Automatic annotation (TrEMBL):
Taxonomic lineage from the root: Bacteria, Bacillati, Actinomycetota, Actinomycetes, Micrococcales
Domain of life the protein comes from: Bacteria
Protein's UniProt name: IclR family transcriptional regulator
Annotated ranges, domain HTH iclR-type: 4-66
UniProt entry keywords in alphabetical sequence: DNA-binding, Transcription, Transcription regulation
Pfam families for the chain: HTH_IclR, IclR_C
Origin species: Paramicrobacterium chengjingii
SMART domains: HTH_ICLR
InterPro entries: GAF-like_dom_sf, HTH_MetabolicPath_Reg, Tscrpt_reg_IclR_C, Tscrpt_reg_IclR_N, WH-like_DNA-bd_sf, WH_DNA-bd_sf
Domain IclR-ED: 67-252
Amino acid sequence: MSKAPAADQTLRILTFLARQRGPVAAARIASSLGVPRSTVYQLLAEMQRQGYVVHLPEDHRWGLGVAAFELSGGYARHEPLSRLGRPLLAALVDDIGENAHLAVLHGRDVLYIVEERAPRRPHLVSDVGVRLPAQLAATGRAMLAQLPKHQVRALFPDTSAFVDRTGIGPRRYSELRRLLDVTRLSGFASEDGEITRGLASVGVAVTDHVGWPAASIAITVEQGRAEPRDYVDRITAVARELSRRIRGNARGVAGGVELG
């Protein structure tokens, strides 16, 4: 038996929520974990106060909050994702001759953890450690499109949450929602001059073993020099391989050749 039952139960609840495809009722949490319902409500209330869970009163359900997403960024900074992703991005850059980067979601931002630059290509703002608005970046949109709608809504509750860089991009949730719906259907995200004028990017999400967006991979090209969407298949193959390496649910195949 745990010597710190409240801590044990809190961690079990967070782990349980992280493995679900969407929000769940407190009663289901209690029955699945064998924790008294009153205790579950007390722990959820405290986690909600600190931002680790969100409550959907209309649905009587609970899901992960912004603070839980920030934990994933902390995990990324401890190197596992960057170590796994760096050789894959280096090979992608050698293949296509364009800049590539790997990012994780960190609240309403994306945090870049790998940057691979191609020779004679422009310097990018997405250096390792840089944070950029998730709703503007292709990396961010690729991950946001994989989240449940209520999670995205929690991240962008009103117009004050929308940051502008170049005067282009969504200014309210309804505009972002339309972009994410298109992204989810197509399987990739794109942005054109919304981070840096003159540059365009496409990105693909890297999912974990339950389909949650653990990271995303994107390439950036100069507008008019190349069509970034032409590289979607190769980016997708690399994203699938990285998903496989972090215990994702896809097998990595590029051109019929196993990457791992």
